[in-house]
What we know:
The protein has 119 residues and is mainly alpha-helical. Helices cover 50% and strands 5% of the residues. It contains five helices and two strands, in the order ααααββα. The protein has helices at residues 8-33, 51-57, 70-76, 82-94, 113-118, and strands at residues 98-100, 109-111. The chain has a two-stranded antiparallel sheet with strand order 1-2. The longest helix has 26 residues, at 8-33.
Amino acid sequence: xxxxxxxxxxxxxxxxxxxxxxxxxxxxxxxxxxxxxxxxxxxxxxxxxxxxxxxxxxxxxxxxxxxxxxxxxxxxxxxxxxxxxxxxxxxxxxxxxxxxxxxxxxxxxxxxxxxxxxx
Length: 119
């Protein structure tokens, strides 16, 4: 196919795929280097969390690698309803804001990496 035979749509697709491939290469290089992408840095304030979820996100320990237990969160917030804290954490997990640290007992939770970076 000659370049003169290309339709405007073909040219637009070619430009799109070229830009996409450059972005994919940049992301691959960042992942290989172990550096988080700047684009992935998110703010807890913009996550549309409920009031209890915002309080949980702000507890010291949620923003680090080690995380914090639901009981510690409950105590820090001076509450007596640990089941509600666990429900808030599960809802935050569904939104991609919090994560359960695997293979740790007792359970420990932390903000996901993009949210940890923004605190």
